[in-house]
Amino acid sequence: MNLKHLNQAPTEVDLIIEARWLATAVKNAPLLEHYSVIVQNDAIVDLLSTALARSQYTSADTVSLDEHILIPGLINLHTHAGMNLMRGIADDLPLMQWLNEHIWPAERAVVSSDYVRDASLHACAEMLSGGTTCFNDMYFFPQATAAAINQAGMRANLGLFVSEFANSYANDADDYLQKGFESHDSWRGNSMISSSIAPHAPYTVSNRTFEKIITYAEQLSIGIHTHLHETRDEISQSETQYGVRPIQRLAALGLLGPNFTAAHGVHLLPSEIDMLSGHGCHIAHCPSSNLKLGSGIAPISSMLKNNVNVGIGTDGAASNNRLDMFTEIRLAALLAKGVSEDPTTVPAHQALEMATINAAKSLGLDDKIGSIEIGKKADVVAIKLSDITISPCYDPISHLVYTCGREHVTHTWVAGELRYSNGLYANIEPMELKEIIQKWQPKLRQHKQ
Amino acid sequence: MNLKHLNQAPTEVDLIIEARWLATAVKNAPLLEHYSVIVQNDAIVDLLSTALARSQYTSADTVSLDEHILIPGLINLHTHAGMNLMRGIADDLPLMQWLNEHIWPAERAVVSSDYVRDASLHACAEMLSGGTTCFNDMYFFPQATAAAINQAGMRANLGLFVSEFANSYANDADDYLQKGFESHDSWRGNSMISSSIAPHAPYTVSNRTFEKIITYAEQLSIGIHTHLHETRDEISQSETQYGVRPIQRLAALGLLGPNFTAAHGVHLLPSEIDMLSGHGCHIAHCPSSNLKLGSGIAPISSMLKNNVNVGIGTDGAASNNRLDMFTEIRLAALLAKGVSEDPTTVPAHQALEMATINAAKSLGLDDKIGSIEIGKKADVVAIKLSDITISPCYDPISHLVYTCGREHVTHTWVAGELRYSNGLYANIEPMELKEIIQKWQPKLRQHKQ
Which pLDDT does position A1 carry in this prediction? Predict the structure, then answer.
C-alpha cells in the first residue's frame, strides 16, 4: 500500500480502466489480475490492484471491464496505409504481374494527396478497431497520411519515402528527400507523429542516395525503414548488378545499425542473421504478405534466438488483405513453430511482445509506448475474452494470441483518449468512410484489368 | 426463362434467399450476381436471377441480402468436437508433454457421455456461427455428439472411434467397434448424420484391427477416417516397429481407397502422394493445428497438382484453438503459396472448393452437399462483404478468402432451416452454453498442471 494515500481523499484523475486481466508486455512480468490503469493527461500514472485503486483514485471516466484483458496498443511495424483502398484489387498473381499490370497502373491513376489522405483515414479506422494504436508507414504524400492520423487520433512513425523513380509525388531521389524533410518539419511538435527516412528498397535506390540517407538520418537523429530480402529475385538481381546480396551492399554502405528497420527479411543466411544481430537492426516480420505473394517464410525463430529484434507488420492491404495484427500475431507464432518443427518456439507472450514492445524498440519509441508501465503513454487496448464462441479461457495470453480475433477488441485508447469503442470512432463517421470508398473504388477499378 | 411459369401465379415455396452474389463452388462456374436460391423442404429446387425469381416464386420466408455473398455451407473435414472445452488448456508445449501431462489426464478426468454431449454442443454453436454446416468428427461417445448435432440442427459425419487403448468409453478394439456399430445403428434414418469407421492412427491400432475395419467398412458401405503422417516421430516409430512408413503399412493392409480420408498428411514423399492419388484417397488438411503442434506443413500444392482430393479441417480446439474455417481456408491458401513460392497456387476459388465440394466428396456426400446446385440440400451460408473495415471489395471470392473472417457470417441455413443468424441460434440458448462452460471448466482446469 502506498502510504501517502492513507487517510487522504482519493485523487481525482482523468481515466481509470479496471480490468479482469492486464498483460503489460514487460519481459518476464506476470499476468496481472483485477488490476487498474490510472491515466492522467496522456500518460499512465499508476498501476495497482483494483481494490487498492478504488481507495486511492476516483475519476468521472471509470471503465470497468470484468471479462476483458488490457494489453499495450498494438504497433503495426510495416504498413502502406495509402494502399488501403487497393485491398484485394489483384490476388493470386505472380509478383511482377501484380505490380506491373495492377498496382502500379492503379497508383499512377489515383495517387495524390487527396487519395492518400482518404485511404490512410480508412486504414486508421481499420487499425483502431483491431487494437492497433501506432503504425510504421511508408508511402507517398506522408503529410496526407499525417492529416488522417491527426483526425483519427492515432500514433505513427511516417516514412519519408525515397526512390529513384518519378511519380505524381516526386521527380527524383533528391525531390523525394526534399519533400520528406518538408513533411518531417510539418509535424515537429506533434507528439503523435515521428519520422524515418524510408528508401523503398535496395533495387529502387542507388548507392549515392543511400549515402545521403545515412547522413540525413544521422543529422535528424531518425531511423531508416526499407524493404529488404523480400524475394529471391531481389537477391539474384543484386548479385548480378552489384556482385553482392542486398544486405551486404547495405552493410558496405554503412546503413546497418540500431536505427535500421528492414521489412520482411524472408531470405537470410545464418551469417546475415548474425550481421543483423551484431548491428542491432530490427526486422518487421510480415507473415501473411510474405506467404500471399509467394515470397517465402522469414526465419524468425533463428532471428529471435540470435537476439535480432523482431516486430510484426501487416504490410499494405493490397498484399494481405487485412491490416489485422491479431491475424499476424497468431500466424507469426504458428508459422515459427511449424517451420522449426518446435511447438515451444515463439510462445504466446513472445508473440505479444513482438507486436508491442519489440516494435516500439524498433521505432526508438520504447520510452513512450510498447508496454503498460507507469510513465508511458496510455495507449491501451481492451479485448473481451468471454464471448461464448471463444470460451473457455484457461490462459488469457495464449487465448489472446491463439483464439481471439480483432473482432473481440472493445476499446482502443491512444494517449489516454478513447478513439474506438464497440464499432464507433471518436473522430471518424462511418458515412465518411463509405463516401471514401464510393469516391475512389470506381477510379481504382478501372485499372484492375 | 422457364416457360412453365408464363402467365402463372408465382409458386409458393418455403424459403427464398436473394443475394448480391452467389458462389456455387461448382468447378469453373462463374460467380453469380443478384441471384436467388429457392428452397422447398430441405432442398434447393431452383437457382435463378432475383429479377426472374420474383416473378416466379413467392415465400412468406424471403430473405434479401443486398451486401452479401452466399456460399455452400462449409464442411470442416477433421474435428474432435468433444474437445471443445479443452480449448487452450495447454499451449506452446512439445507434443508428448502436451498429450501426457495435459490432454490425456484431462480426458481421463472428465470424458463421459455427458461431457461429450456438452462439449459437442459448444462446438456446434461455434461452427454454426462461423458458417460451418457439416463436420467430420472423431471422438469417444459419438452418440453423445449425435445428440448435440440433433439439437443444433447441423449435419455431421461421425467417426466410430477405434483404438487398442482402454478408456471410460471402451475397453479394447472390439469393444470400440461394437459400440461404434451401436452408434451407427442409432442414427440410421437420420438424414443429417452419417458414419465413418475412425481408427485413431497407425500407432494406436493393430494390423488385426485394421483388417477388421476394412471388412466392416465394406459391409456397411461407409468410409474410413484416420490420422496419418502427422509427425516425423510417427513415421520413424513405424519404421522401427513395422519396418515401413505408416502409409506403406496401411497400403499393404488394403486400407487405401476412395473411401479413405487421412487427416494431416504433413510428411509425404512424392511417391506417397502418387499412392494417395492412385487410390483416390482424400486428405483433411489442418494447417493451424499442424503449425501449432510443430508438426510441419503439408505439401498440398503437390497433392492438388497430383489430383489428390484435399479438404480442410480445423482439428480439435485443444490444438488450433478455433473451429474457424475462415481462418483455415485463408491459411491453407497462403501457406501453399508461401511454401511453393508461387502466388498463383491455390487461388481463392480453389480454397473455397477445398472447404466445400472437395470435403463433400471425401465424405461421399457430394450428391447431397458441398455446392449450391438444384437438387442438393439447402446448406447455405451468407457473409456480409460490406463492413467498412473490410471494404472495398473488388472480387467477392478473393474477398471471402483473404479478407473476411467468420465474424462476417450473418446467416447459416442447414437443410433449409435457419440455424444461426446474427448472434442467435435457433435451438441453442446462450445461457445453456455458459452453463456448460461453468460446469466443466473447473473440472478440466484441475488437470491443466
Answer: 45
Q: Return the axis-axis angle of helices A173-186 and A142-152, rounded to nearest 10°.
A: 30
Among B158, B19, B168, smallest CA distance to B78 is for B158
pLDDT tens, A15-67? 999 999 999 999 989 999 999 999 999 999 999 999 999 999 999 999 999 99
> Does B169 reside within a domain?
yes
Please say whether the beta carbons of A39 and A373 come within 8 A.
Answer: no
Name the closest residue on chain A to residue B297, using Cα atoms: A338
Flag whether pLDDT at A240 surpasses 70.
yes
Residue A17: which residues within 8 A CB-CB, separation 6 or more? A36, A37, A39, A62, A63, A65, A70, A380, A382, A411, A413
B219's CB contacts (< 8 A; 6+ apart) are: none
Q: Which residues of B413-423 are buried (b: 16+ CB within 10 A; e: fewer)?
A: bbbbbbbbbee
**Inter-chain touch B347–A388, beta carbons under 8 Å:** no
Q: What is the DSSP string of B70-119?
A: EEEPEEEEEE-GGGGGGTTSS-S--HHHHIIIIIHHHHHHH-SHHHHHHH
CB contact under 8 A, B390 and A340: no
Preferred mutation among B335, B388, B448 to probe A, highest tally of A CBs within 10 A: B388
ipTM of the modeled complex = 0.96
Q: CA B176 to CA A441: how far, in whole Å?
A: 59
**B113-129 and B142-152 helices, crossing angle to 10°:** 40
Pairing assessment for the beta strands B282-285 and B309-312 based on DSSP bridges: parallel
**Each residue's pLDDT tens digit, B258-283:** 999 999 999 999 999 999 999 999 99
Residue A425 lies inside a defined structural domain of this protein:
no
Determine, yes or no, domain membership for B442.
no
Q: Which residue has the cell 473451429?
A: B323
Contact B80, B137 (CB under 8 A): yes
The Cα A194–Cα A55 span in angstroms is: 38
Q: Are residues B178 and B126 in the same domain?
A: yes
B330/B399 same-domain check: no
Runs of H (alpha helix) within A130-221: 142-152, 173-186, 207-220
Q: Which residue on chain B is closest to A91 by alpha carbon? A: B398
Domain holding A119, by residue range, is: 74-362
The neighbour count for residue A243, using CB atoms within 10 Å, is 9
C-alpha cell at B181: 456399430
Which of A302, A327, A362 is where one domain is finished?
A362
pLDDT value for A4: 54
A147 and A174 both lie in a single domain? yes
Length of chain A: 449
In this complex, do A88 and B394 lie within 8 Å of one another by their Cβ atoms?
yes
Cα–Cα dist B68/A156, whole Å: 34
| Residues in chain B, total | 449
Which chain A residues have a beta carbon less than 8 Å from that of B389? Answer: 125-126, 129-130
Q: Which amino acid, residue B68?
A: H
pLDDT at B249 over 60: yes
pTM of the entire predicted model: 0.97
Q: Which residues contact B379 (CB under 8 A, 6 or more apart)?
A: B72, B73, B133, B134, B155, B369, B413, B414, B415
Q: Model confidence over A72-86: pLDDT tens digits?
A: 999 999 999 999 999
Indicate if B167 and B59 belong to the same structural domain.
Answer: no
Cα distance between residue A319 and residue A315, in whole Å: 7
